[in-house]
Amino acid sequence: MPKTTVLLGYLSVGLAVGIVSGLLGIGGGVLMVPAIVYIWGRSMQIAVGTSLAVMIPSALAGVLRHHFSFANVDFRLAGLLAVGAIVGSYAIGAPLAEYLPSEVLKKIFGVLMVIIGLKMIGVDVWLGRLLAWIV
Question: How far apart are CA 65 and CA 87, in angstroms?
Answer without folding.
Answer: 27
